[in-house]
Amino acid sequence: MTELVMARLYELMIILYALSIVLYFTDYLYKNVKFRRVAFWFVSIVWVLQILFIVLFIIETKRFPILSLYEGVFFYAWLLTTLSIVLHCIARVDLPVFFINVLSFIFVTIHLFAPQTNGQIVGESLVSEMLLIHISFAIVSYAAFSVAFVFSLLYIILYRILKQKKLNNLWSRLPSLQQTVKWMNLSTIIGIPLLLISLILGLEWAFLTLETVSLFDVKIIGSFIVSVVYLIIYLLHQRGKLLGTTYAKVHIYLFLLVVVNFFLGSKLSNFHLWV
Questions:
Q1: Range 112-139 burial, b when 16+ CB lie within 10 A, else e
Q2: In whole angstroms, what is the distance from residue 19 CA to residue 163 CA?
Q3: For residue 190, with 0-12 CB atoms within 10 Å meaning exposed, 13-18 middle and 19 or more buried, which class applies?
Q4: Residues 249, 156: contact at Cβ < 8 Å?
Q5: Residue 42: which of 79, 3, 7, 88 has the closest Cα?
Q6: Smallest Cα–Cα separation from 89: which of 150, 46, 18, 41?
Q7: For the chain: N or C, fewer Cβ within 10 A?
Q8: Could you read off the pLDDT tens digit of each residue along the chain, which spans 275 residues?
Q9: φ, ψ of residue 74 in degrees (nearest 5)
Q10: For the residues of the chain, what is the DSSP string, one character each?
Q11: Is the dihedral of CA 103, 104, 109, 110 positive or negative?
């Protein structure tokens, strides 16, 4: 019965999310405040449905849904939905909210069509608070890097529009270059320590729980490279050696590396049970 309710909830979630994206896009083209308000309420309903879905999952399985890649994708999508609502209420930015919702919708649909592989879930005897925090921090850091990715895309779009002197009413609701850089930096500052803490906790859990752990594991190396490179480009930016579109493009390439590490890194890992 619970599975049937969860399936219907997910279908409703997909429909409302698709409608909200259409309404956000229509509002952007025609500047219709009513469309924007309805889109925001649809996203808010989706967010509530996602929470309800998580609660029903916990009731059904007696655990939080982050112990497999399949479940992690949904948790990541929920975080993006949450960030889009926060940005809508606090930052009052339109296009970033739209792009973050599009990204979240993509991962919601990936979760819908991806095969659920219960056999790959971490065994109960290996689950601990340290592992849960490790996975949660990693996914939250990915969400932060996603925000940096969105604002880096907007920076490049706005820069080219200004350079070609094509700024018109259609692009008037873009954030300024200063705002995009500010949000890129803020997201990076949040993401780096979270990923490093996640990496440290994951290694501690592995050494304390598993019999054999290799420091040269693909997932460990990938996460370490991502965190270090993000730290390097942020420091270079702060010292004035990495600016403008180059800084934005590096963020885009790094986010692609994050996605590869998120999916492929887990699959190629020799010891990672979160696959």
A1: eeeeeeeeebbeeeebeeebbebbbbbb
A2: 34
A3: middle
A4: yes
A5: 88
A6: 41
A7: N
A8: 567 777 788 888 899 999 999 998 888 777 778 888 899 999 999 999 999 988 888 888 777 878 777 788 889 999 999 999 998 888 666 788 889 999 999 988 887 776 555 444 554 445 567 778 888 899 999 999 999 999 999 999 888 888 877 666 666 667 788 889 999 999 999 999 999 998 888 888 777 776 666 666 777 788 889 999 999 999 999 999 999 899 999 999 999 999 888 776 555 555 554 44
A9: -70, -40
A10: -HHHHHHHHHHHHHHHHHHHHHHHHHHHHH--HHHHHHHHHHHHHHHHHHHHHHHHHHHHHSS-TTSSHHHHHHHHHHHHHHHHHHIIIII--SHHHHHHHHHHHHHHHHHHHSPP-GGGSPPGGG--HHHHHHHHHHHHHHHHHHHHHHHHHHHHHHHHHHHTT---GGGTTSPPHHHHHHHHHHHHHHHHHHHHHHHHHHHHHHHHH-S---TT-HHHHHHHHHHHHHHHHHHHHHTTSS-HHHHHHHHHHHHHHHHHHHHHHHHH-SS----
A11: positive
Residue for token pair 């509002």: 27
Place of tokens 């991806």: 114
Q: What is the identity of the amino acid at 241?
A: K
- Six-digit token string for 196: 């490093």
- Tokens 């500010």 belong to which residue? 182
| The two structure tokens encoding residue 192 | 């780096």
What token pair was written down for 20?
């909200």
